């Protein structure tokens, strides 16, 4: 496929997978039209980049289904002035979408290979307001807190305490919460120091592994 064919596939993705399912935020739809998802998948999957599904990426992980990227972005209610923390860089695709709608994006990834690939990819594609850091994302990123918005692209057993603490007053966190195999997308708004939770769509994400989530192999080496 050439770039024009990819552009047409992206337009079809937005119309058939997003608008038809109720995504209506103009910013989210614009960002999904602009960001070339085919640049964020391994070359062998580029012809499927705009399919209605998650796809494999490096380190045994996945790039999320376009609809899930769109609904999480919409739930963040971005206006363009926010500082955002993303937990789980993965391919870098969600960070690229967020970069079109926020002032600054800090994205953390615990897997060194993914962090390196995403960092290089985002720089090559010109997403200059995204910084990728390698750390245990379940603990957030205290050095740049507080954050106006936090998005977690892996499933957690509950909202990690450090993330709630690092969210600014009036801020929003969007996170899948549930078991390791099935979650519900939650939006939390911080009001008077407490999170007011709203429950949204069922979903399935890879587990959030770390000190404040699923305590499995949390080493960074």
List the defining traits of the structure above.
221 residues, 26% strand, seven-stranded mixed sheet, alpha/beta, two-stranded antiparallel sheet, Rossmann fold, single chain, 9 strands, globular
Describe the structure.
With 221 residues, this protein is of the alpha/beta class. The protein has a domain at 66-203: Vaccinia Virus protein VP39 (Rossmann fold, 3-Layer(aba) Sandwich). 28% of the residues lie in helices and 26% in strands. It has six helices and nine strands; from the N terminus they run ααββαβαβαββαβββ. Strands 5-4-3-6-7-8-9 form a seven-stranded mixed β-sheet. It is globular. The relative contact order is 0.12.
Topology, element by element:
Blueprint: H1 3-18, H2 26-34, E1 55-56, E2 62-63, H3 66-76, E3 83-87, H4 93-99, E4 104-109, H5 112-124, E5 130-134, E6 147-152, H6 161-166, E7 167-178, E8 183-191, E9 194-203
Parallel strand pairs: 3-4, 3-6, 4-5, 6-7
Antiparallel strand pairs: 1-2, 7-8, 8-9
Question: Can you give me a brief rundown of this structure?
Answer:
The chain is of the alpha/beta class and 221 residues long.
Rg calc? 16 Å
Number of helices: 6
Mean pLDDT: 95
Question: How far from one another are the termini?
Answer: 38 Å
Number of strands: 9
